[in-house]
User: Which sequence fits this backbone?
């Protein structure tokens, strides 16, 4: 009779773990990305104002930020693998509840619940990657963030066609199924590894000026992502596009983001000085915003290409640059929790601000202008990220 495999044995299959990581990523954005293409229908069915509609993105992103700041405490109390499993299970519940709770209050409440689940995964998964795949951490973070954008692309492109046949309430709830699949795969993939819980852990690097700079950089950059995710489809429906076409436009943009993320994952090791890539992708984001401001109808395709390339590369780059500053798994979890926590709180303001702009003006053009100013700030910050900089080890 074969002896039981010890709990400290290696993971059963690296390929299985990588597949689980990608599937986890795929489930972290549909609860947000499916809203934009359906926003007009949701507002018609629930009576949501433009400002309240912005909350459907702002609330979960804000919740993601607050919970991510607690990542170190969550790691100590729940353990990394267990906490990730709880997070994806919460996402599945939040999606499923959107079928019966499809009023305005229910949608906002499930958005907050989904944000909690997303935050658990995002706060703990970097520590898992850093611990078990230290030599491939940058590459796996690239695949993980690409999975995040891939989920957004699928959700955005399929939202309007599926809603026409299922109804938007059932469509939003349908995303519970892949979340359940991710939870089951994660349970199997992480089953043979001793979970990490208890101990002092690493504290948030609140005393580090560089950590705050990384947080602001991530927050403004992610603000571009959340702004486009929430308001690009309604912006184009205002210009006379159909809901299906505007959803396909967002789906196309996120598909470009996926491709950009894959490229970054493949070439990142060739650029020890990340500033070369950072400046390039920020200029692409700025060019895309300029297209939306100057001639959105005529320059829709260039806007999609520039924004997709820029945002798609900036998101994984921001996390990879942050991970460059630490060498230990606990420090990686603490820094990424701090960067993502404060960053998502900053980013959460953009959809709400855009909703207010739309409510009090006839166009979202001013929102793109505000974001363009933010990108200029990022260009100034990016030049400070010279290679070799590290945070002091956490005590």
Assistant:
């Amino acid at each position: 009779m074969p002896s039981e495999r010890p709990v400290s044995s290696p993971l059963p299959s690296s390929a299985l773990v990588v597949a689980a990581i990608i599937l986890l990523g795929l489930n972290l954005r549909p609860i947000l990305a499916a809203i934009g293409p359906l926003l007009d229908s949701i507002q018609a069915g629930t009576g949501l104002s433009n400002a309240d509609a912005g909350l459907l993105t702002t609330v979960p992103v804000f919740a993601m930020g607050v919970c991510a700041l607690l990542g170190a405490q969550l790691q100590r109390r729940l353990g990394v693998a267990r906490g990730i499993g709880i997070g994806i299970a919460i996402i599945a519940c939040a999606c499923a509840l959107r079928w019966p709770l499809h009023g305005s209050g229910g949608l906002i409440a499930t958005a907050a619940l989904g944000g909690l689940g997303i935050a658990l995964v995002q706060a703990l998964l970097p520590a898992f990657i850093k611990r078990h795949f230290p030599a491939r951490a940058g590459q796996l973070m690239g695949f993980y963030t690409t999975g995040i954008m891939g989920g957004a692309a699928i959700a955005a492109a399929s939202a309007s066609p599926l809603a026409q046949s299922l109804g938007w309430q059932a469509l939003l709830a349908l995303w519970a199924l892949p979340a359940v699949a991710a939870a089951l795969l994660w349970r199997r993939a992480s089953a043979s590894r001793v979970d990490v819980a208890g101990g002092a852990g690493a504290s948030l690097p609140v005393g580090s000026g560089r950590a705050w700079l990384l947080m602001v950089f991530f927050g403004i950059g992610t603000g571009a992502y959340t702004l486009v995710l929430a308001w690009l489809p309604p912006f184009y429906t205002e210009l006379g596009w159909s809901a299906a076409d505007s959803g396909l436009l967002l789906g196309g943009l996120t598909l470009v983001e996926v491709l950009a993320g894959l490229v970054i994952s493949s070439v990142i090791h060739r650029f020890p000085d990340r500033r070369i890539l950072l400046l390039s992708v920020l200029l692409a984001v700025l060019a895309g915003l300029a297209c939306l401001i100057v001639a959105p109808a005529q320059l829709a395709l260039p806007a999609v290409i520039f924004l997709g390339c820029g945002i798609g590369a900036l998101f994984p780059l921001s996390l990879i640059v942050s991970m460059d500053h630490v060498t230990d798994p606990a420090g990686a979890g603490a820094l990424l929790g701090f960067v993502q926590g404060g960053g998502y709180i900053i980013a959460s303001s953009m959809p709400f601000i855009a909703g207010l702009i739309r409510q009090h003006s006839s166009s979202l053009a001013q929102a793109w202008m505000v974001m363009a100013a933010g990108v200029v700030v990022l260009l100034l910050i990016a030049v400070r990220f010279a290679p070799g900089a590290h945070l002091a080890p956490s005590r």
Summary: Residues 46 and 135 are 49 Å apart (CA to CA). Confidence is low (pLDDT under 50) at residues 1-12. DSSP finds 16 helices and no strands in the chain. Residues 329-360 form the longest helix (32 residues).
